[in-house]
Write a structure and sequence with these properties.
6-stranded mixed sheet, 324 residues, 4-stranded antiparallel sheet, Rossmann fold, 2 domains, alpha/beta
């Protein structure tokens, strides 16, 4: 396999096991979202990838061979905590890290100029890091992770603290890196961004892989849903619909003008009997086919993603092979 592979990786601190035989992969050119509640083991996994920690069991490989220190030099890392010199200006900061990556001074300056332009930091070249907004500090942190032209990016909460414009810029840059063949692994509690950006996701809960695969795979639940919107209160319709066999009825809005109905079976047409009840009720304005968001799916089915993780540990189940 081309790229990163963790196979059966476990790690404990004292008598506390943080990772349980975890499998995770990031192929070249793909974006993988790493999802889990606080304390799920995401940061520990990233530190193992970077060689800051060693695994108690299991294997970490790069392009099918045990990962080496040289391989790890080709990983760009963006920590959640700022890893910058607060009293150094932006441009000098990026040049400094480019020099540490082995660039000559002229090349380091060129790299800094390119990154400043692509990350929207023009006009702040001489600003001290400590005087930047949180979002702009995050942009500089990403710039530093890119100075070595990495083959793999490992980003811990890269969107934290960014305004919508900066989020769009960051997302586009991540896509550009993947298009160049760079593998990207990033953790985030912002599941709408994960859903938009990622080719695959890996869901971690209390150190165990609970599910993995593409967004489409994870959302294939074998259930069809429709939201019926009325111009008036639809209590009578909801009561009649709830009497139909195999139909589940919920009310997504406080005014009861919208009713969500669901039934087993993927990609089904709305039942004719249900449609007849809606039409006889009167005031039917529209019918929308509804798919759960990733946030709703994970909250209900896997973990309370982005919140404290309280679900009991369980053996890994995968939507495809675990994080392949």
């Amino acid at each position: 396999m081309n790229g990163l592979q963790l196979t059966g990786v476990s790690r404990s601190f004292g008598d506390r096991t943080v990772l349980h035989s975890m499998d995770l992969s990031v192929q070249r050119g793909e974006i993988v979202g790493f999802i889990g509640g606080n304390g799920a083991g995401k940061t520990t996994s990233m530190r193992l990838i970077l060689g800051l920690l060693t695994a108690d069991q299991g294997e970490i490989t790069w392009d099918g061979k045990p990962i080496t220190a040289q391989d790890r030099r080709n990983i760009g890392y963006m920590p959640e905590e700022r890893g910058l010199y607060p009293q150094m200006p932006v441009r000098e900061q990026i040049i400094h890290f480019a020099l540490l990556e082995g660039h000559k001074l002229s090349a380091a300056r060129s790299v800094a100029e390119d990154l400043i332009a692509s990350l929207g930091l023009q006009g702040r070249e001489r600003t001290l890091i400590q005087d930047l907004s949180l979002g702009n500090q995050q942009r500089v942190q990403l710039a530093v992770s890119l100075v070595g032209n990495p083959a793999l990016l490992v980003l811990d909460e890269p969107f934290s603290g960014l305004d919508p414009s900066a989020v769009a810029t960051m997302g586009e840059l991540i896509r550009e890196q993947a298009a160049r063949g760079v593998g990207v692994l990033f953790s985030s509690h912002q599941l709408d961004l994960v859903e938009r950006l990622c080719d695959r996701v890996c869901i971690l809960d209390q150190g165990r892989v609970k599910a993995s695969g593409s967004i489409a795979e994870l959302k294939t639940e074998g259930i069809s849903r429709w939201q019926l919107n009325f111009s008036r209160t639809a209590d009578a319709f909801a009561a009649q619909a709830a009497m139909l066999r195999g139909i589940e009825v919920t009310r997504p809005s406080a005014d009861n003008k919208s009713i969500l109905v669901s039934m087993e079976g993927e990609d089904r047409d709305i039942p004719a009997q249900l449609l007849a009840i809606a039409q006889s009720h009167g005031g039917l304005r529209s019918i929308e086919s509804i798919q759960r968001s990733l946030d709703d799916l994970l909250t209900r089915q896997y973990i309370s993603a982005g919140r404290s993780t309280t679900a009991p540990a369980a053996p890994a189940t995968t939507a495809s092979e675990a994080c392949k």
